[in-house]
Amino acid sequence: MKKIYLLALSVILISCNKEQQATADLVITNAKIYTVDNNFSVATAMAVKDGKILATGTDADMAAYSATQIIDAQGKAIVPGLIDGHCHFYGLGQQLQRVDLVGTKSYDEVLERISSFQKEKNKSFIIGRGWDQNDWEIQEFPSNQELNEMFPDTPVAITRIDGHAMIANQAALDAAGITTTTDASGGAIEIKDGKLTGILVDNPMELVESVFPKETTQESIASLMAAQDINLSYGLTTVDDAGLFKETIELIDSLQQTGDLKVKMYAMISNTPENLDYYLNKGIIKTERLNVRSVKFYADGALGSRGAAMKEPYSDRHDHYGALLSPIATIKETAARIAATEYQMNTHAIGDSANYVVLKTYQELLKDKTDRRWRIEHAQIVDSADFNLFDEENILPSVQPTHATSDMYWAQDRVGADRIKGAYAYQTLLKQSKRIALGTDYPVEKVNPFLTFYAAVARQDTSGYPEGGFLPEQALSREDALRGMTIWAAYFNFEETEKGSLEPGKAADFVILNDNIMEIPVAQLHEATVKSTFINGEQVYESK
């Protein structure tokens, strides 16, 4: 009788213990979890329920939870879902359907790739991107003569890797209505010996782009889904797409609502009259996966194509200053219109002149406002006298570290020894604004966020050049680089209360890494890979 009583008591105790356990959908144990909270705490275990972080702590702490799924992380590092603070997600997907010219070492190689592409695809309009004359032995823009001979009747438009210069053949120029008398304000239409060379810089490129064949809905969906596959494989759970049109934003929303598009999107609307009229009047659009509350504006072009607006002439081209893409009056007028709404203004500014104009415009408009978080995208070349125009709550720097390591071979030739001191100055910007968002600007650069992390910390290319790093005093610590790709990037998107760190109540967006980027040697950071990617507690990627 006594044995029966003790057995019954033990059953009751076990039952009560189970009832006392909180339930979770997922528990992860035996991990090294970098929560990126205010203390940069490190945990070994985590519980997830209904797509949110339930708790973090030790393995013993997680014994308080009963879960339908338990993952032993086998000691691997876990970080919050990575956020690309500036990219072109839809553009990446489109580029996957076009001629890939990245890495070409000569114009002849460019022509060979176009020829091979057309033999396979037989397009009615050949579009491509990725060439960079700075990588060629002859570092000059070519002419379209060979393209005219190869494709006399088929339009061809191939864009420089930074998206700020284009080579168009005569068929494309004709389709766009471009002649030697076409207005080239905000850019350039190159003319030699009274003839068009096919080189277009910045604004005139839009004339050619306006006659590109319109994508079908199915082609657009294919582009978005292809881009998602790549991003999830790198642990990117939120992306800031820097310039989208209403039609694409609505397609993204529909794909997210059906569950096909898992990745979260911070959408910057392209600065067009139609977009401004619609979105500024409609107000912020926010769902669980989509956030539309900012305007992408272009102040100038790119350094590589000498389109960045500089205060003094380029060091390698006498009397050439680059150009603002819009008159200062237009910049101020647009900024004032945005300031009257809840929308954020995110302005592409590369040259020191463009940065100054935008910084002063922001400062004047926001002087009596708080927590506007307007962004300078790139903040690439800043006059040393102008860094103090950035601040902690209204004017913030959004940068792309791999731009520094891509440009370092020729950047000083463009701007000289003095101005280069204010270039790619991430540590200086961080000290001024207390936060800095990191991105890639892909497909200008590669999607891989570990290249971003490596470039921010090492300031070197993947071969270890230069020894000691490029402008090494501007390097970020690993902790700050991770913050810039998680919690600070979330802050720049007004989303820091819902993502960016692994804290109770926040979205269970996280990445299990094969390589611990907080501990492995710096030289190995760019080789890091992802084991698993989770969004809202759902596994959306697993390495093979």
Automatic annotation (TrEMBL):
Span of domain Amidohydrolase: 69-541
Gene3D superfamilies assigned: 3.10.310.70, Metal-dependent hydrolases, Urease, subunit C, domain 1
PROSITE patterns tied to this protein: PROKAR_LIPOPROTEIN
Name of the protein in question: Amidohydrolase
Pfam families from the UniProt entry: Amidohydro_3 (PF07969)
Species this protein is from: Nonlabens mediterrranea
InterPro entries given in the database record: Amidohydro_3, Metal-dep_hydrolase_composite, Metal_Hydrolase, YtcJ-like
CDD domains named among the record's database cross-references: YtcJ_like (cd01300)
